[in-house]
Amino acid sequence: MDSLHHSSAVKGAKVLMVGAGGIGCELLKTLALSGFQDIHIIDMDTIEVSNLNRQFLFRQSHVGQSKAKVARDAVLRFRPYISITPHHANVKDSDFNVDFFKQFSVVLNGLDNLDARRHVNRLCLAAEVPLVESGTTGFLGQVTVHVKGKTECYECQPKPAPKTYPVCTITSTPSKFVHCIVWAKDLLFAKLFGDKNQENDLNVRSSDASKSSEHGEDVFERRNNEDIEQYGRRIYDHVFGYNIEIALSNKETWKNRNRPKPLFSRDVLPEQLNYQNGNVDKKCATDDLSSVSAMASLGLKNPQDIWSLTENSRVFLESLKVFFACREKEIGNLSFDKDDQLAVEFVTAAANIRAASFGIPLHSLFEAKGIAGNIVHAVATTNAVVAGLIVIEAIKVLKKDIDNYRMTYCLEHPSKKMLLMPVEPFEPNKSCCVCSESPLALEINTHRSKLRDFVEKIVKAKLGMNSPLIMHGSNLLYEVGDDLEDDMIANYTANLEKVLSELPSSVIGGTMLTVEDLQQEFTCNIYIKHREEFDEEKEPDGMVLSGWTQSPLEKKDDNKSVGNGGSTSTSMPSEGQSVELDEISEGTEICSKKRKQPEVSAGETNNKNEVERLDVVDDGEEEIVILDGWDTSNKKKKLQEPMLKAIVSAGFSISERKEGLRKGR
Questions:
Q1: Is it the case that residue 615 has pLDDT exceeding 80?
Q2: Contact assessment for residue 437 and residue 574, using Cβ atoms and an 8 Å cutoff
């Protein structure tokens, strides 16, 4: 009887898969072989050569094509009678709204970034559709189940904040190779090849150093009729020589630090460079310019070799030369891409030269690429195991087998002879702003900070809203949308440039703002606290969002079903080890609770109150994209104004609700 129930639940289910990468390929195959008949796939990516070593549904001939469409075609070859609908699109597109999600029995995530995950989480909550989350990082993996009202949502627990470094450390006092990588990638590469008008922390140091140079103009601009090698040497001398000399002039900085050594091209390289394969025209004669290599020009073949200072200097000048010779049209619009061979070579060489100057050990191109691209190499077996676990949990969800929901962790090393660690799900966090209607507090200087700062740094970056609407009482301060009239757009654009206290409806200490994303259908209230000063190093945003705390882990009633959410740690603790939750973002107040790993024997599950959880955010690809995990938002919080309460409770469409809000200004 149970098998018949299983069969009918699976065959009658309509499943949405989000992501067709490392996990997604394995998942689609497993779903098809498990009897699922109606599957939709959303993925915006196209197939790259680097995908082929683990995404087995793809072949060399598929490079450049849609992952979702090719995956569909590949599976239909061995399961031609099932329905698979591919969507080559971004899951955050307006087409994939709450109504779209409501048609599915369950949603299965195989995404590679927190921003998209929290977006899907919110849509699933609004549509009341169960979500099965997953992720892998090397040998580590996890699968979690999220059911509204029964388990905690994906955002109930804080996610790791992206690793950031103080600007002064990057520009002036690097002590680790990663500091040099960040400098080379985010400052130097961006300055030379990115948007020339973009503010860059190299500007300040450059204006000082230019006084020591022969010319006072922008040293990063190539002069008329300047030979490319002369330009390259001038840049080299400026950033590795003059800038270091300027830094050394501040003797106070180096009292307790090792002094760096200025490096000039004349001291490292001969006046005239001889290249092994120096014909630039031949190098540019290729359809794929992103594969053009300075290494090949110089006869450097092994990416795992550590280049000498001279070799790094030659690669630096050669890669600069090739960029201008072969890809000059792209200059001004480039951003670093780990799959761009020439960009990786330039960043590796620049980082190593800077490291040599500061007495930091040099690294190979292979190592530097891993650091620059946040790469953890994927393990296909982990993807396959996780895909199988996703399907197991999806079947439980479809059968409404709540008591047997599990979040399962794949471990790199056995714990109590187990590599798969099943854990009872967690209850919803009562302090979660997404699913438990908990308000937030924001400390901000209301006389200095503009509405634009609030929108960019808090509403979008911290709260993850895509189409925000901001209200003070019944007054609409800001909104976005295709249905706005020109005068409204002008009004909201003007508001962005006003400081909070000077807005039409003044925002000062004690103000309660309501922020809503109509596409995701959730709302949160933010209490404003005025604060005069902030620590520029510890609180670089000039504002501090707080109010979301780790909820106490109470013993669950055995008769109640609960669930899991996003993880709070990046690794499983060793036996008996206490692990303290990390602060989720600078200046964010979090109550840290400790959990211990339980004694587990084969066949047993961990007590939900005792296990420290992983936080794997990868989709089985080789890169981990760690976005800002401060995912604090509110789901359908009651609005304080009676008019707004009526609009929300009446169930109007998004356009009708927006129109009602505008009329209530």
A1: no
A2: no
